[in-house]
Amino acid sequence: MQSTIDQILLWYGNLPSGVQTGITVVVGAVVAMIVFKVVIRFLTGILTAVIAAALSFLLTTVPGHALLQTGVDQVKQRVDTSISEQQRDDFIGDTSFLAFSERI
Questions:
Q1: What are the φ and ψ backbone dihedral angles of 15, each rounded to 5 degrees?
Q2: Which residues, 6 or more positions from 12, have their beta carbon under 8 angstroms from its beta carbon?
Q3: In angstroms, rounded to a whole number, what is the distance separating the alpha carbons of residues 23 and 67?
Q4: In this predicted model, what pLDDT tens digit does every residue of 66-92 receive, in sequence order?
Q5: In whole angstroms, what is the distance from residue 37 CA to residue 30 CA?
């Protein structure tokens, strides 16, 4: 492995300076393109994940809140109804007791 790298370096060193510059530019462009594609895929993955997270948050919180609020309203309505029925029953019970005592 070391001898292969040494041979490449010697070959590169023996090239004219214009050719060295051209090879350096081409290799740099290829490496930059590869890095660019990797970074774009990474950022696309991150962007996709962020969009998916935001949509799932909205889909679960907005309807979830609406469902919970509807449930809370129904419980409040049942409690209010049962309280008013209890008060009515208490009131009716009291008057019926009075009506029963008047008959006696």
A1: -75, 155
A2: 20, 23
A3: 65
A4: 877 888 888 888 888 877 777 766 655
A5: 11
